[in-house]
Amino acid sequence: MTTVQETAAVRYGIWVACPAAGAAAGWGLKLAAGWITTLEWFPFQGVFELVTDIPEPWATLAALAVGAVAGFVFASFWASEMMSVEVSPSRITLHKDDKTFGFGREEVESAFADGKQLVLLSPSGTELARETSDLSRARLERAFTEQGYRWRAADPFASEFRMWVEHAPELPADVNALFTARRKAIAKYETAEAAELAREIRKRGVSVRDEKKRQYYRCER
């Protein structure tokens, strides 16, 4: 079995780098608080005025602590969105968003990378999975080919995708409703929710991909 995942430096480094960067940002904002209060047009004046009223060293300690906590929260989100892929001659398993998706060898006809997305196709052309990650395309290709899977250079059905518009006539009402909900999630940068809605759409026999916040779909065969 071959496992493709982020390097150890990334997986563990974010827990140090993100809180450190957050603490540095908090400290920088604390230093700039006095100057910001002189800018009448700048929003949240009350917050910065409050910061300038806190005596030292508590103001600095508070800024460092708040920034570090914010960095830790960011690292948690980043870690949850990382994907790892396990490829064996009999099965492919994806781990992402605290979820696990498994596919037997007979279910997978081929795989390819569409930008930052790993896509798995069934023998009928159905998209089994389309998941976003920062994993190396070359490492993914090597993992699949070494385990005997077909790796495609590009999406063989790319020309069949069409842009989704509200109440698309060829789609069932429940699928259009999912696309509408997903459009709202994308607008709010709720990536995990958008990914989950895409999985629900895919279960209904419709492939979905994004280009610059626009949704495109393909009715599967």
TrEMBL record:
Domain YqeB PH: 2-152
Transmembrane segments: 12-38, 58-79
Keyword Glycosyltransferase: no
Keyword terms, alphabetized: Membrane, Transmembrane, Transmembrane helix
Taxonomy, superkingdom: Bacteria
Domain Cysteinyl-tRNA ligase anticodon binding, first and last residues per copy: 169-218
Keyword Transmembrane: yes
Coiled-coil stretches: none
Pfam families linked: bPH_10, CysS_C
Protein name, as recorded: Uncharacterized protein
Native species: Lentzea waywayandensis
